[in-house]
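dumping this here so i dont lose it
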């Protein structure tokens, strides 16, 4: 059977639901799982074509992250392990929205021609598949496989139930010729974590259960996976709750998104946890926030968000670089460019703090693809969204220099230890995407290295009070933004109106933008008081309605 008839036959089994309109958005396609089969089938085709084009392994992940359990979604991992190249997003949209088998076929033929992709079976495509714990995942995975198999010469390799960052890590590892199983992932994380822990200054203060970390697994894939990883770690006691085995519902009253947005304790946490170090993962474990339960009498938490994780990482890395370069003449050392990347959602106090450390801070639009791309311009690029998605990227040239430097430095010297720590961080931290596990292990290792409590960390700076609202609108594309989403250029006049509201509040700041994952306009406001932030957000929301 030839390529055309295979595609025509297979695609006719996955008709697009009437009236559906899909958009690749901030993080792939997302919708109610019931309408997603055709989209996932077509994403399978896309992943196979991308693999053929790049002559590398690509990935396809089925997840809707922090969204409700009845939703699902699909995203493609590029050969680097990062997000699908933005250049292919219009094709992704066109594929997902093709009205029938004929127009789908036509699109594929034209695109393949334009990109010089040959589907004669001589070139092999390989796509790694992963899914989270959503019940709809199994049938959607089948649709993805059929999509991949619709491209002649393609192989779909099912890696099973995984966290999103595990799948991305595997794609990257495969293309680097490294071993790429889940076991290999766990070994890399646990061995680099152990390395950082052996360099904790002074005697090891470990670690009765009084120093334990309590983790909210969002009733998603992360809880169970973390329990496996835990068995390979020393010097860290973790108790996992909401691991999905106790009957709780995915992302309902639990998880990093809930904790960060609502700022209240997740389910299964409460008065017994007062003062403990707590952390929350999201449904597919690519986001991480920490929190403290300050008192038994209320549901409120002290949130230690992505901005503060970023600040801890930046501070630690800057300190290690300082030790490494001590006494070295500028001309003799590789001058590592350290950069910090945030979005407009970063709390203003965090940006002030980071700039106060003398760091270069840049803003990009929302969405990991933008932050990641920017961070990759530095030798050490640290990026985080306030919601807890982020990582640290190291350039090959810097790592190469660091390896060399490490071998030259006197054995056991402070300088060499700094080099070892930086090398360990580069292995611990997922280089493909934000990863709650590597983030968590790095936070824990740094707190140990600095001998800091979570309270000390939390008090690095005080967050400005903030408020986020969403406004349902007829057409969210009516809002167009510029300058990393800090300014609304359309509809005309709205930015002036926002400015007029904002100046009424000390330390006021506010912006609007269309969501890339939901059909809403998001409103963000911060001010010197919570009441100020709340009323500012409300008045800006009124302008949008
Ligand atoms: P949208 O819906 O575009 O705001 C949300 C998050 C992003 C990112 C994506 C993907 C906020 C304000 N936005 O995007 O940061 O995580 O989902 O999951 O949290
Ligand atoms: Zn997620």
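and the seq i came up w/
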């Amino acid at each position: 059977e030839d390529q055309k008839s295979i595609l025509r036959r297979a695609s006719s089994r996955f008709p697009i639901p009437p009236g559906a309109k899909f958009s690749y958005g901030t993080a792939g396609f997302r919708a109610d799982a019931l309408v997603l089969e055709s989209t996932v089938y077509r994403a399978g085709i896309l992943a196979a074509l991308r693999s053929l084009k790049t002559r590398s392994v690509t990935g396809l992940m089925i997840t809707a992250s922090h969204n409700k359990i009845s939703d699902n979604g699909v995203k493609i991992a590029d050969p680097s392990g990062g997000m699908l190249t933005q250049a292919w997003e219009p094709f992704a949209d066109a594929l997902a929205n093709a009205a029938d088998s004929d127009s789908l076929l036509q699109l594929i033929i034209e695109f393949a021609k334009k990109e010089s992709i040959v589907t004669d079976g001589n070139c092999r495509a390989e796509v790694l598949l992963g899914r989270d714990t959503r019940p709809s995942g199994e049938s959607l995975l089948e649709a993805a496989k059929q999509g991949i198999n619709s491209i002649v010469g393609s192989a779909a390799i099912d890696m099973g139930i995984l966290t999103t960052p595990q799948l991305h890590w595997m794609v990257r590892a495969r293309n680097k010729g490294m071993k790429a199983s889940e076991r290999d992932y766990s070994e890399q994380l646990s061995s680099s974590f152990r390395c950082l822990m052996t360099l904790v200054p002074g005697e090891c203060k470990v670690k009765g259960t009084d120093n334990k970390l309590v983790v909210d697994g969002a009733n998603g894939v992360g809880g169970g996976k973390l329990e496996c990883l835990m068995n390979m770690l020393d010097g860290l006691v973790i108790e996992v709750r909401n691991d999905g085995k106790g009957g709780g519902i995915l992302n309902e009253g639990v998880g990093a998104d809930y904790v960060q947005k609502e700022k209240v304790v997740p389910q299964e946490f409460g008065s017994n946890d007062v003062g403990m170090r707590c952390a929350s993962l999201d449904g597919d474990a690519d986001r991480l926030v920490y929190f403290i339960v300050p008192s038994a009498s209320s549901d409120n938490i002290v949130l230690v968000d992505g901005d503060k994780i970023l600040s801890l990482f930046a501070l630690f890395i800057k300190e290690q670089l300082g030790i490494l370069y001590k006494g070295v003449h500028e001309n003799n050392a590789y001058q590592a460019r350290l950069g910090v990347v945030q979005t407009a959602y970063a709390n203003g106090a965090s940006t002030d703090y980071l700039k106060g450390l003398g760091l270069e801070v840049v803003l990009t639009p929302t969405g990991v693809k933008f932050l990641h791309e920017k961070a990759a311009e530095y030798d050490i690029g640290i990026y985080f969204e306030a919601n807890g998605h982020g990582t640290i990227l190291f350039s090959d040239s810097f790592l190469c220099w660091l390896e060399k430097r490490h071998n030259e430095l006197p054995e056991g010297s402070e300088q060499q230890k700094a080099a070892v720590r930086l090398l360990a961080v580069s292995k611990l931290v997922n280089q493909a995407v934000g990863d709650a596990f590597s983030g968590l292990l790095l936070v824990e290792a740094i707190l140990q290295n600095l001998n800091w409590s979570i309270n000390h960390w939390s008090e690095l700076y005080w967050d400005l009070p903030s408020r986020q609202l969403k406004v349902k609108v007829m057409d969210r594309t009516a809002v167009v933004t510029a300058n990393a989403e800090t300014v609304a250029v359309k509809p005309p006049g709205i930015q002036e109106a926002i400015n007029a509201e904002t100046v009424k509040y000390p330390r006021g700041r506010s912006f609007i933008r269309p969501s890339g994952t939901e059909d809403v306009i998001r409103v963000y406001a911060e001010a010197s008081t919570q009441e100020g932030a709340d009323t500012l957000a409300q008045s800006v929301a009124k302008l949008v309605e």
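The radius of gyration is 24 Å.
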